Amino acid sequence: MNAEPGEFLSLLTDEEVAALRAAGRRRRWDRGTTVITEGDTYEWVLVLLEGRVKVSSHTSSGNEVVLAVRGPGGLIGEQSAIDGSPRSATVTTLEPVTGLVVRDFVSFLEAHGRVAVLLMKLVSERLRDSDRKRIEYGAFDTTGRVATRLLELADRYGEQTTSGLRVALPLSQDELAGWTGSSREAVSKALRTLRDRGLIETGRRRVTIHDVEGLRARAR
User: Fold this and answer.
1) pLDDT by residue (tens digit) across 189-206?
2) Which of 82, 85, 108, 128 is most buried when burial is the number of CB atoms within 10 A of its CB?
3) Cβ atoms of residues 24 and 101 within 8 Å
4) Where is each Cyclic nucleotide-binding domain found (predicted)?
């Protein structure tokens, strides 16, 4: 299991990881499975071991808003586990996922004070990231927001090839639209614009970035 840098599991020592595994139960979900539903009152947390999920919510008009994409090492559901509030978002698998379900996460934190402090820092980083995205929505056009999200995915999942930085895109255009606060039509137009400029090449659930610096400039 290779936790993504900066994700919860990557911050723990080997002894802390072993204690967490002992406190949880390993489970597996197929692609497209709803793991957590917004409004549920279950208080367990999920630590991702393999695969990626999307965290999303729906507006009153029924539109899906993608809040985040989490990969190996990510921690899901910690807020409800800590404060007992209903789930604030739905979590759906983007590919086959293996995870560790921990039911009494608060007891684990009480027994491992260093991990509790690390979690506070992680939650703070997520709040800052949420603030940055809100600023993007007001400051960037759709193409800029799409470029920013592609760069984020490339940084996390990109694989260097002879033709460029290849990203196995876990999101459909509808989901990418929900992640950028745009319509599917606007996202399709943005991708076409980036292709026409020679910055990217798109395929089925994949993007190859030919000019990272050019894409970064467009994102700004």
Assistant:
1) 999 999 999 999 988 878
2) 108
3) yes
4) 8-129
